[in-house]
């Protein structure tokens, strides 16, 4: 057993943790980062849920499945005839795994480049703070204890299971199992019409599954602007996703090679559905089990999240927490921003994270992205506003792409014209939303965007036109 002293120890190497470690090292601290995620060979696989079984592999499969769907349905329109189209699912999954490994290796390289000491194992508080700092026990292939003057907890989250229906990752799947199905299921059930449910449902629908999505809430995508959500529901249904809202799940029963779900639909009628696989995506829970919070006296709230203030400080001196394990949206980029802010606060700087301008994205096709307030929120607040929309159907680049579904929607203050929210459903919405984030960070008005020259032909012109629509003066619609 060795004993090592560090200025900063980061527990967890997901997006928040590895970025926090790198920024702290840039600021001159001696930094260690501990992460237990392993690859198939038992080696380190930093990057957390996002890199290993979340953002990165899901985008890889979304891209591959979209290529497959285009080859089977839309290439002909472009004058490209494809005969003998077949699916090699093994190769598709292999490519996904390669993308994941490239990201894992990239993080390890960044640690080396920035002189961050990486420990492959599970970290936990071993006791209260002493003159040497906080003792952190690392268990794994090479157990040891290290001491930290400052600790940043970035342990992320786990998929929430349905009571009585634990994940076996063979028939009842979390995001982990949903990314590793070895044969296209004829009938796929998805419980939860959130980001993960819709993205995974889209992947397997494109590859040939009959996908049924069961959502407990009476509204579709309740966090999304209502107008955008209605458009999404219409488009996804047209694609072939069967979306049932207001469902009450009564039981989930595993058979030898299928899963039976008994539920009441929105009308209250009893329904029995049998699926080859069932994806459960009903939210995530903070990953604080085994952290040794009780040994250090670290306070958790009633839901298991680490209690923090606006600066990500916990109840313990020099202990911070970021990302999915604390309040706020469970988004990789939110965790990254908090990681940078905390490292800078440790250095005596003024790190900052603006929750009002964190973008959200759902990587379906069409993509959905938004930042700021929704129209229903503004109505509920009594905030005076003006709305402007522009359809991609009227955008030249979208026509050339052959992807004209959706729209851009601007919401601006009725008196000051300050942009309050931007909502996009359509091609490359994930990229287009960045302009809105920048504009809102600089407190721009809709008129500012309307007056800025946008390249032609480009999808971004739809953003300019939606800003013009605030004042009812679109030029191409």
Automatic annotation (TrEMBL):
Protein residues bound to NAD(+): 192-199, 215, 283
Disulfide bonds: 50-55
Gene3D superfamilies, per database record: 3.30.390.30, FAD/NAD(P)-binding domain
Enzymatic class: oxidoreductase
One record GO biological process: 2-oxoglutarate metabolic process
Keywords: Cytoplasm, FAD, Flavoprotein, NAD, Nucleotide-binding, Oxidoreductase, Redox-active center
Cofactor(s) for this UniProt protein: FAD
Signal peptide location: none
InterPro entries attached to this UniProt entry: Class-I_Pyr_Nuc-Dis_Oxidored, FAD/NAD-bd_sf, FAD/NAD-binding_dom, FAD/NAD-linked_Rdtase_dimer_sf, Lipoamide_DH, Pyr_nuc-diS_OxRdtase, Pyr_nucl-diS_OxRdtase_dimer
Reaction(s) the record says it catalyses: N(6)-[(R)-dihydrolipoyl]-L-lysyl-[protein] + NAD(+) = N(6)-[(R)-lipoyl]-L-lysyl-[protein] + NADH + H(+)
Cofactor mode of binding and number, as noted: Binds 1 FAD per subunit.
Binding-site list for FAD: 59, 155-157, 324, 330-333
GO molecular function: dihydrolipoyl dehydrogenase (NADH) activity; flavin adenine dinucleotide binding
Domain FAD/NAD(P)-binding: start-end pairs: 6-339
EC number annotated for this UniProt entry: 1.8.1.4
Active site feature: 456
Subcellular location, record wording: Cytoplasm
Residues covered by the Pyridine nucleotide-disulphide oxidoreductase dimerisation domain: 358-467
Protein family: Belongs to the class-I pyridine nucleotide-disulfide oxidoreductase family.
Any further remark recorded for this protein: The active site is a redox-active disulfide bond.
PANTHER family linked: DIHYDROLIPOYL DEHYDROGENASE, DISULFIDE OXIDOREDUCTASE
Full protein name: Dihydrolipoyl dehydrogenase
